[in-house]
Amino acid sequence: MEIEVILLGRMSYDLALQIQKKIHREVLQNKRKETLLLVEHTHVFTMGRRTESKNLLHSPEFLDQEGIGLHKIGRGGDITYHGQGQIVGYPIVNLKRINKKTRTYVESMEDVFIRLLRDNFDIDANKDTGKYTGVWVGDRKITAIGVEIKRYVTMHGFAFNVNTDLKYFDWIVPCGLDDRGVTSLEVLTGKRQNMDQLFQMVAKYFCEVFELVPTFRELKDTLEDIE
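^ Octanoyltransferase, sequence as received from the core. Prediction below:
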């Protein structure tokens, strides 16, 4: 089965969400094949369905002064940060067509990054054996995962910390877990990573794990480019 991989480049959360919703409608209507959006966002905090207000440690007014957006969205999970140096992926797929249930879909996304980190960086990343989603190196999360599913079609997805400035996670309780931390590929390897190469690597491993054949395209910067 094919999947269209669309590289959005660096883009605001607002515009990427519009694109994601448009493609989600079209996949629901069987007007578009499975799609993976890959993007690097400008600074934003997103609050999932289970977010508690206490997990945002600064006021919305302060965030606005700092030029950081704040969005309440429909995915699962609590609050997290997106920004430069982080690869965010939005797989928009029909779970029936790719033969996945919700749990196995999330586990497969975790496998993408466990394999990528093991094969290319000799990093021993793992799933949490308890109740927490995502990919962990020790007790620090390197990839966050939160999804929303409507009529078997997925939205939202994953956020992989590559060269992410981790100070912004100090402004929140990431994913509502005050006993866990976050990390990045830059921290673990001790050097800045090439984002273009990592985008390609993420797409490759995603397609391998899900057994999908990719076709690639780039988007300029407008919603109208998605036809």
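Helices lie at 13-28, 60-65, 102-121, 185-189, 195-210.
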